[in-house]
Amino acid sequence: MRELGLILLSVLLIFATLEVVASHGDQPLSTIAAQKAIFALHHQAYIKVSPTLLGLKGQNTDWVTVEFSSPNPSVEDWIGVFSPSNFSASSCPAPADNPWVEPPLLCSAPIKYQYANYRTPKYKETGKGSLKLQLINQRSDFSFALFSGGLSNPKVIAVSNKVAFSNPKAPVYPRLAQGKVWNEMTVTWTSGYGIGEAVPFVEWGPNGGQPIRSPAGTLTFDRNSMCGEPARTVGWRDPGFIHTSFLKELWPNTLYTYKLGHILSNGTYVWSQEYKFRASPYPGQNSLQRVVIFRDMGKAEADGSNEYNDFQHGSLNTTKQLIRDLNNIDIAFLIGDICYANGYLSQWDQFTAQVEPIASTVPFMIASGNHERDWPGSGSFYGNKDSGGECGVLAETMFYIPTENRAKFWYSTDYGMFRFCVADTEHDWREGTEQYQFIEHCLASVDRQKQPWLIFLAHSVGLFFCNLLR
Ligand SMILES: *[C@@H]1O[C@H](CO)[C@@H](O)[C@H](O)[C@H]1NC(C)=O
Ligand SMILES: *[C@@H]1O[C@H](CO)[C@@H](O)[C@H](O)[C@H]1NC(C)=O
Ligand SMILES: *[C@@H]1O[C@H](CO)[C@@H](O)[C@H](O)[C@H]1NC(C)=O
């Protein structure tokens, strides 16, 4: 007898608390008034960064030392990291709604920032300081600027040399997700190689067995896909290319290895490191299956930068704990409010880097939340500005989800004795809607004898209560 039969009756509704948070207060980069910045270079101020070439051992995370000095030091002085390194006004488009207005001097927010006195408390007296900052491979080079005037009236007083990873276009940050059928795993990753430049693929096979190659599809998007500020303006950053490959007809429970590859037009191969995953169990298979479900993760920087109200430091603790427990996790669900990029696109790369050890090893399934999707007039159920103008495009492109249309962020997936029905609280799910039909079908079509664990997942309870009270 299967003791799990006892759980036949339970449909689990997993919701975390409904929490109302101010939309822009969540993103540290939104505290910087980038569009008000001016250049006030001072010949006695300097900022220099070493080493200049990063990732020499093939790694996609590296540390730099920043040394700087100002003749008029203040506790408000800060260091901004820019990528691409050429951050001056010449690349700013004039505002589309008013072409007569001069474009701002600084049209992109830094990808991270830190106060000048963070590691050097005496900076205010001596005017000299240094910092260690962590950089990840984000497809472009970097430069650093020393600012006075605080975050609200930024004045660039010195600009550093440039630094870059040895291959900025390298394939990075693989994330696994269940495919549309139980025996298919999808691998999604980011690179700087467009389809005209190189052919993306995954080389994979059973651990120790003969590898094969599977092709990958490539997606990207431009600034016009963003719905508003800051994603369209200072938060915009080229997303590079996002590739997904479909590894099919997997054998249940089998350990596979894989690596990401690109064939350049001159025949040269560019490879990632090698990764491993275990294929999904057969639906209904009676075996140990361990599932982690959480939401509102956020991201933070290991070097202490971008810190604001201690808001998301805990996301590093969560990440570390999950990595420590990885041998006891078979599949993970992060059900909305994924990284709180809120329209600052650089943060998505940093998030995929942060969760890489988890997402490259077990299926990392996401759901959509207000901070991914909501934007007035964009089709989201709620008309708030919580996505910072992303209106779902980032979440729908950076991660694969097994749905016909990723803009309709609801899906089901089978994992052994589990059936997951993942709903999209940012779209209407009331009776009569397309999503309602999906939920009804997902719940009704499961064979409860084989899959006693029927799990309903959704990001927030707001709409759920609307439904109950209707
Ligand atoms: C800055 O660099 C990017 C890519 O490195 C390039 O596309 C862009 O044209 C450059 N902008 C300026 C103003 O040089
Ligand atoms: C192929 O092109 C890449 C990128 O342009 C270059 O680094 C590499 O040296 C080239 N290889 C050969 C064999 O020409
Ligand atoms: C999170 O990690 C930091 C640094 O390791 C530690 O100081 C802090 O106590 C941790 N927080 C929690 C809630 O465990």
From TrEMBL:
Matches recorded under Pfam families: fn3_PAP, Metallophos, Pur_ac_phosph_N
InterPro entries: Calcineurin-like_PHP (IPR004843), Fn3_PAP (IPR040974), Metallo-depent_PP-like (IPR029052), MPP_PAP (IPR041792), PAPs_N (IPR015914), Purple_acid_Pase-like_N (IPR008963)
Gene Ontology MF terms in the entry: acid phosphatase activity; metal ion binding
Swiss-Prot/TrEMBL cofactor(s): Fe cation
EC number: 3.1.3.2
Catalytic reaction list: a phosphate monoester + H2O = an alcohol + phosphate
Keywords per UniProt: Glycoprotein, Hydrolase, Iron, Secreted, Signal, Zinc
Leading EC class: hydrolase
CDD domains per the UniProt record, alphabetical: MPP_PAPs
Primary residence: secreted
Span of the signal peptide: 1-23
Localization in the cell: Secreted
Subunit annotation: Homodimer.
Protein name: Purple acid phosphatase
